[in-house]
Amino acid sequence: MKTILLVEDDSNLSQGLILNLEAEGYQVVHVDNGNEVMSVFRDGMFDLVLLDIMLPGVDGLTICRQIRADGSTVPVLFLTARDQSDQKVEGLIAGGDDYITKPFDMAELLARLQGIFRRQAWLMAGESSGEVFEFDGRSLNYKTFEARGPGGTVRLTHKECMVAKYLVEREGEVVSRDQLLDAVWGYHAYPTNRTVDNFILKLRKIFEEDPASPSYFETIRGVGYRFKRV
């Protein structure tokens, strides 16, 4: 049974979500005030956080950043209002895994949850074949999200690790931005596929000797990206 931390201050919406999620076999812990979220989160073991952006007290974006600052990789799915397009993107950059816009259909929410858990399982599958990928004195740990390059060891975000893993698994193959979006976020998550470029730039800063002239994470102009070992 997966446990979801639901952070939502609308009592009618939260009660409906609790009933439906529990009917689907999830265990739900509910918090209705942003000030209380981190203490509840740190005291529990959660498989996903369903997080409203607009909350009394601490807002959802700040909470997501705090969760990531704690080193947690638990998936975060944002609940957003229709007029919060800028916050949707900001939330994903802050470490969120997906968002769903209110009002939404319960079937759509359940599909989003299943998609997140499916991608999470794919990322964790690296453990079965060796959780650390090493190449040319560099390494990528799929479990801890630690990456080691010429500049030392840093911790990747959940999505940065997924982008790297997707490319590494297809070594030598040219991968389009659309493929990366679909595999890592679900295509609906970002308003433009150019956002993928920012994640590639971060990986280059970690793994490349010269990020401006990459040897491992190559751009194939007009098509996408390719990972290859030197």
Describe this structure in words.
With 230 residues, this protein is of the alpha/beta class. The protein has two domains: 3-124, 3-Layer(aba) Sandwich (Rossmann fold), CATH 3.40.50; 130-227, Winged helix-like DNA-binding domain superfamily/Winged helix DNA-binding domain (Arc Repressor Mutant, subunit A). Helices cover 40% and strands 22% of the residues. A five-stranded parallel sheet has the order 2-1-3-4-5, with helices on both faces. Helix 6 (158-169) packs across helix 7 (177-185) and helix 6 (158-169) packs across helix 8 (195-207). The longest helix is centred in the middle third of the chain and has 19 residues, at 106-124.
Keywords:
230 residues; alpha/beta; Rossmann fold; Arc Repressor Mutant, subunit A; 2 domains; 4-stranded antiparallel beta sheet; 40% helix; elongated
Give a topology summary.
Blueprint: E1 3-7, H1 11-23, E2 27-31, H2 37-43, E3 48-52, H3 60-69, E4 76-80, H4 85-93, E5 98-101, H5 106-124, E6 132-135, E7 138-141, E8 146-149, E9 152-155, H6 158-169, E10 175-176, H7 177-185, H8 195-207, E11 217-220, E12 224-227
Parallel strand pairs: 1-2, 1-3, 3-4, 4-5
Antiparallel strand pairs: 6-7, 7-8, 8-9, 10-12, 11-12
Helix pairs in contact: 6-7, 6-8
Give the C-alpha Rg.
Answer: 18 Å
Largest sheet: 5 strands, parallel
Could you tell me the strand content as a percent range? 15-25%
Write down how many β-strands occur, each being a DSSP E stretch of 2 or more residues. Answer: 12
| Separation of the first and last Cα atoms | 44 Å
Along the chain, the helix and strand elements come as: EHEHEHEHEHEEEEHEHHEE
How many DSSP H or I helices?
8
Count of distinct structural domains: 2
Q: The CATH topology of the largest domain, please?
A: Rossmann fold
